[in-house]
Structures are given as C-alpha cells and as structure tokens.
Design brief:
This protein is of the alpha/beta class. About 45% of the residues lie in helices and about 20% in strands. The chain has 10 helices and 7 strands. Strands 3-2-1-4-6-5-7 form a 7-stranded mixed beta sheet, with helices on both faces. β2, α3 and β3 form a beta-alpha-beta unit. α6 packs parallel to α10. The longest helix has 18 residues. The chain is globular and about 40 Å long.
Length: about 240
C-alpha cells in the first residue's frame, strides 16, 4: 500500500525527531490501520491513533502495530478525533505534531520532508499540497470540488494556498497548542486554516503525494461524497 521511501530518506531524517508525534484519527479502519501505523513507525517512534467509536477492530489492530490508542466511546467525527490526538501528544511533551490520514493515502517520507522544511525555515506550520505534489487516482469531480474549497478558503482566511483540505500537516507544539477545533466533521479542515490565519502563524506548503485507492474511495473519498466538503464549509461559516 505504501511506497518504499527513497534512498535519500536517511539523510533527510538525520535530525532528532524523537519529540515528533504522529496523530492519526481513525473510524472503522481495521483493514488498513496496522499497515498505516507500521508505515509511520518506520520513521517516528510516537504514533497515536484515535479510535473514533469504530465498530470494527481498529483500536486493537492499531495497538498491535505499536501505536498508542485513545478510544472514543462513540463516533464524534474527524475534527474531534484530531483534537483528542493533539491534546494527547501535547500532554506527553511533543515538540512537533503531524496529522496523518488512516486510510493509506499519505506517505511518511513526506512528513520527514515537511519537518525538515519547518525547521529550516523556522516556521510554525507546514501544510501538505497534493496540487504541488501528486494526486494519484483523483477524480475530475473531486479535483473541481477541492479547487472550489481552495477559492473559498482564500477568500475567508486570506491564506494563499493551493490545497485547502489536505490531512497532512506538521506543526510545532507551540503553534498547534493554539488550535482548538469545534467543527467535528469535514469543516474542521477549514477551521484549522482559519485559526492559522487568526494567530498569524508563519506557514508554507510543500508538495506531497495523495493516493486515491479503491479502499479510500469506498471509505468516503468518492466523487459524490466530495460535495460534503463544500456543504460543511458553508455550514461552518453560517455558524460563526
């Protein structure tokens, strides 16, 4: 499911990343979560999976693969799961926190590159961009919806981004401590960006790879479900 990191990864990860925490929200990802955790742990020791009220063996599989697991008794949504994971990492002394999708779409080598860029440029946050990198298997409708979300986000936050709904992000602990999520579902992605703008965090985008597999499409990355992104964006705006 995950590509083999290039030979240059060792030099890229020469820095001490012992204080990095990888936060993975997960809901009914029992089929793939062990692979995702093992993939993340090839580079990083600290991985926490927030088992968001799953009805399958997501939590058990994640724990067996070496992740710390926090269980939500009911499904609260990805925004709530991310906030739980962020809080968990900060309490345990995280120096950096990366958010990472559970379904195998992301590559951990991209996190290494983002962390290096964060430190080289002395930034608060680095955001992944599939449109500066690779969006493998993306549908035309989903691409169009994501671009509409980008335009909406540029207008509402002033952030000049090329990807507004990418789950791959890297923060310093100081910056992510300022993030407080109230939108539990997809609108949390825009909420994060709004808070980055509100707190005037220094940021950059870095190209990353997002792979749309048959599994991830079936799980909710289909073209029809893409419309939910825009629905949540507007609902989130109306609630303010």
């Amino acid at each position: 499911m995950h590509p083999t990191p290039p030979a240059s990864s060792a030099s890229k990860s020469a820095r001490d990343f012992s204080s990095v925490w990888i936060v993975i929200p997960a809901y009914n990802e029992g089929a793939v979560i062990a692979d995702t955790v093992l993939h993340a742990r090839t580079m990083f020791k600290h991985v926490v999976v927030i088992n968001d009220g799953s009805s399958d063996d997501t939590g058990i599989a994640a724990a067996r693969a070496g992740a710390a697991v926090v269980n939500h008794p009911v499904n609260l949504g990805q925004g709530a799961a991310l906030q739980t994971g962020i809080d968990y990492a900060l309490v345990r002394g995280a120096g950096f926190v990366a958010t990472f999708d559970a379904d195998g779409q992301h590559c951990i080598d991209d996190v290494v590159a983002m962390l290096n860029h964060l430190q080289d440029k002395n930034l608060d946050v680095v955001l992944g961009s599939r449109f500066l990198g690779n969006a493998i298997g993306i549908s035309r409708l989903r691409r169009a919806v994501l671009w509409a979300a980008i335009i909406f986000t540029r207008i509402t936050t002033g952030l000049k981004l090329t990807d507004a709904h990418n789950g791959l992000r890297v923060f310093t602990s100081k910056s992510i401590a300022k993030i407080n999520l109230y939108q539990n579902r997809m609108a949390h992605a825009s909420e994060i960006l709004e808070q980055i703008a509100k707190h005037k965090m220094t940021y950059a985008e870095l190209g990353n790879t997002v792979r749309y597999t048959s599994y991830s499409i079936a799980k909710g990355q289909s073209s029809s479900n893409s419309i939910n992104i825009l629905m949540d964006l507007f609902v989130g705006r109306l609630r303010k």
